Amino acid sequence: MKRLGILLLLLAGLASCRKDPAPLPAEISRVEADPGSVLKGMYLVNEGNMSMNKASLDYLDLRNGLYTRNFYSQVNPQITKGLGDVANDIGIYGSKLYVVVNLSNKVEVLDVKTGKRLGQVDLINGRYVTFANGKAYVSAYVGRVYDPNSPNGVVAEIDTTALSITRTVSVGRQPEELAVVNNKLYVANSGGYSPNNYERTVSVIDLNTFTEVKRIDVAINLHRLKADKYGDLYVTSRGDYYNVPSKLLVVDTQTEKVKRTFDLAASNLAIDDDVAYVIATEWNQSQQKNTISYNTIDVKNELLLSRPFISDGTQNSILLPYGINVNPYTKEVYLTDAKDYVTPGKLHCYTPDGKLKWSVTTGDIPAHMVFVK
Hints:
Blueprint: H1 2-17, E1 27-30, E2 41-46, E3 56-61, E4 66-69, H2 71-75, E5 87-93, E6 96-101, E7 106-111, E8 117-122, E9 126-132, E10 135-140, E11 154-159, E12 164-170, E13 175-181, E14 184-189, E15 201-206, E16 211-217, E17 222-227, E18 232-237, E19 247-252, E20 257-262, E21 268-272, E22 275-284, E23 289-298, E24 303-304, E25 321-326, E26 333-337, E27 344-350, E28 356-364, E29 366-372
Antiparallel strand pairs: 1-4, 2-3, 2-29, 3-4, 5-6, 6-7, 7-8, 9-10, 10-11, 11-12, 13-14, 14-15, 15-16, 17-18, 18-19, 19-20, 21-22, 22-23, 23-24, 25-26, 26-27, 27-28
């Protein structure tokens, strides 16, 4: 009995000492300011490595030239566990900022002006977000991570006022990026958890009925899907990491067929006006190495351009190009380096003629960016 009493006292002492992890402190760095910037700033979400609960949100004040790491924790100190586990996408619609936090099974909703938390929408294994007609559309794997027997994924429709899911529609396995063109939602299906049975289609969803009306055959293991202003979709295929290489395909949304294939690796891209900026970190399982490349494409004429968007040789110091964004007013290119996936990365700003303007340290795996007007 005495021994039990001592044990209970010890447990009580341990419980009183245990505290939730403190929010990460904010760190502010100076970069070159642009007082006349049309845009106020840019949010950057850092994915953080899987199962490490290190997702974080940074903010770049363009006009004052201030970069704040761990911005989310600074303005939401009451959320002691931080943003969550693997922040997979970010988007702005109206006055709200949406962060899809993959392994935390939620969509975090913030005030775009302040970054303060407004609420969350629960969604299992969410991936990417886009918006149309007062709704947010989020792709989700639904099944557990790396389960080859996972069910088909879904797209969830979220009411942006009520912050609740109103409808869901089934698509292919492990759906990834998505875009709306002419009131149709296009979703890249990957099947990435089943290497011997990759998906190879883009789902077409009628937004009025919220039903899948068609699947477009494209290529295996799809990932990125970006719409240009001409009604075309630029879709990346990751290949099989062995014998089938990565490539970039163009889908015509009028015919809903592949109209052009670029035989170049593509991991991510950003489209601004008539130019697509393409980065690639193509992993080869047999060789156990990445092949890195940078390209630009004229999307109006669907031609590969001879000029890369980095001209000063500084790409040689980038270990793992990961996220990309382009300022639509200044044409400056923002490129992230995820480095080794477990240590802080870098954000690089390039001038329109491809010269490095400045660099700043980010959180772990800097990935997705969105401008604030």
